[in-house]
Design brief:
alpha+beta; 6 helices; 44% helix; 11% strand
Length: 288
């Protein structure tokens, strides 16, 4: 069925389609209200190398150590360390420890599109306070885990890589994209159900109407077979056959005679004799 055919069906069965559309709007509003709003917060860490570099000698005096700017020593080792930390934070046990068992709060940790020594933390929760608090927990966990990993490797403390908080937990913002997707999906499904129910009702009603008209027609035909009622009979008299007039008598009591044709006497004209007409069976002849 084309578009205009669908419009005609909806217009014909508006008393079914209109309540269904209203019900769809009410249910979509209910879904929007009942689906919890998610809040998002984020933070950023940067890893830096020690000022004296990655090497340390106990016999070297501190004043003799060549110091450099840590922000000028971003190399591949810091990127590798950031990737190690993302793997640790992505462990399910660590996530359960930070977010809480059975909690709906979640977080993600990655190095971003650049892939450098930056660590991006993003959290989602059902409340703004929970989202911001979770960002702080993840940042603290990252700093502590970085120190623990270096201690486990027996690295000199003077060579420890440090993590600096570049962006503190941001103010949580509401995310309504998920709610809109839920509402959109619910609306599409309900509209499809509305069209299906309208077409089904239209088909059932048309079949019922045809069946009823067929029964009425059959009943009318059977009534016509019994003949019209006495009051409905035709009272027009039957046509009467025409009656041929009887031949007239000649006045003498005898049977009627056909008049004898005569000529037209005229002295100065020729005598014209009129031929006798053909005998009519209704008139008796002399032989009779």
């Amino acid at each position: 069925m084309d578009f205009w055919g669908t419009v005609r069906v909806l217009r014909r069965r508006w008393y079914i389609a209109l309540p269904a559309v209203l019900l769809t709007g009410i249910l979509a509003l209910y879904v929007y209200i009942t689906v919890p709003t998610r809040y998002e917060s984020s933070g950023v860490l940067v890893l830096t190398s020690p000022a004296a570099g990655g090497r340390y000698t106990a016999n070297t005096k501190p004043e003799d150590v060549v110091k450099v700017n840590p922000l000028l020593q971003f190399d591949g080792s810091l990127t590798t360390t950031a990737q190690i930390l993302t793997q640790i934070l992505g462990d399910p046990k660590t996530a359960e420890e930070l977010a809480g068992k059975g909690s709906t709060s979640v977080y993600t940790a990655n190095t971003g599109p650049v892939g450098g020594p930056l660590l991006f933390i993003t959290t989602e929760s059902d409340s703004a306070e929970s989202a911001e608090a979770l960002v702080g927990k993840v940042l603290d966990k990252t700093v502590a885990e970085l120190a623990a990993q270096q201690k486990a490797l027996s690295a000199p403390e003077q060579t420890f890589i440090t993590a600096q908080v570049l962006v503190k937990p941001t103010t949580a913002s509401a995310k309504i994209g998920g709610k809109v997707r839920y509402v959109g999906a619910a609306t599409v499904v309900l509209l499809l159900l509305t069209l299906a129910s309208t077409f089904a009702a239209d088909s059932i009603m048309l079949k019922s109407k045809r069946r009823k008209e067929g029964k009425d027609k059959d009943g009318k035909d059977s009534k016509d077979d019994t003949g019209p009622a006495p009051s409905e009979k035709d009272t027009t008299p039957a046509p009467v056959a025409p009656v041929r007039p009887q031949p007239q008598s000649n006045g003498n009591g005898g049977p009627p005679q056909r008049p004898v044709p005569q000529g037209v006497p005229n002295a100065h004209q020729k005598t014209v004799i009129i031929a006798a007409p053909k005998p009519d069976p209704a008139w008796p002849t002399k032989d009779d």
